[in-house]
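Lecture notes, continued. The same structure-token format from the folding unit now serves as the input rather than the output. Read the line below as a description of shape only.
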């Protein structure tokens, strides 16, 4: 039996890879499966939290007792998350949000007339950075970083730049880690520079470790 040590906490989790339309039949996306975000939602609800899951993942059954909001694009996720943020105590941004989207989605299906097709992409809003800027003292923001090299250096830089309380970093090139895997190998990176490496664990166990770290941070913040 799990202790309800997150009772009374309002938790928002994002999951999945956003899809950015290119034309009526195509989109740009990434390899995110949503598994880590869903595991976080499941673990938090078991521990008694009031959980909202903002998800771009498809074909994945939401854990019972979780309020689910489905989104497609980075823009929609941004709007939804910013609207819900003021009511939350904790936000964990496990979603793989597209960094770029097609500048314009074509109204008609793009035809294969050209030998070389150039797409113009523009930046999407960085939701995590926006949360970091608006964060109130009672709110805890957890970011994620999928990296393919220089994991710790990139993660430390991100934790500081985005003003998060905790950054969960994973090297997605490691076997047993990252996208679509049932297990994950992460490092908990604190903005002060402390790094706690976790062993290879199933994603539900990783989720519980992340919530343990969040509760510890919140307890330390109250002292
Ligand atoms: O900078 P990078 O994209 O690697 O940071 C990853 C973290 O930032 C993740 O928590 C992801 O959900 C979040 N993110 C975001 N909005 C973006 C890009 C990333 O919230 N446009």
């Amino acid at each position: 039996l799990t202790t309800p040590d997150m009772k009374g906490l309002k938790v928002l989790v994002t999951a999945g890879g956003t899809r950015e339309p290119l034309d009526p039949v195509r989109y740009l996306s990434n390899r995110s499966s949503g598994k880590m975000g869903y595991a976080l939602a499941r673990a938090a609800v078991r521990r008694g939290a009031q959980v909202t899951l903002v998800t771009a993942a498809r074909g994945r059954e939401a854990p019972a007792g979780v309020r689910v909001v489905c989104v497609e694009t980075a823009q929609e996720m941004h709007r939804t998350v910013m609207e819900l943020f003021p009511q939350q105590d904790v936000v964990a941004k496990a979603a793989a949000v597209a960094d770029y989207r097609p500048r314009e989605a074509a109204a008609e299906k793009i035809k294969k007339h050209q030998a070389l097709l150039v797409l113009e992409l523009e930046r999407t809003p960085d939701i995590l950075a926006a949360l970091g800027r608006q964060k109130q003292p009672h709110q805890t923001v957890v970011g994620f970083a999928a990296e393919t090299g220089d994991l710790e250096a990139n993660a430390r830089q991100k934790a500081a730049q985005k003003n998060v309380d905790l950054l969960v970093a994973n090297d997605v090139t490691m076997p047993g880690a990252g996208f679509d895997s049932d297990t994950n190998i992460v490092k908990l990176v604190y903005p002060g520079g402390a790094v706690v490496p976790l062993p290879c664990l199933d994603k539900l166990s990783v989720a519980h470790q992340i919530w343990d770290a969040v509760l510890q941070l919140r307890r330390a913040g109250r002292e």
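Point for the exam: The chain is about 30% helix and 25% strand.
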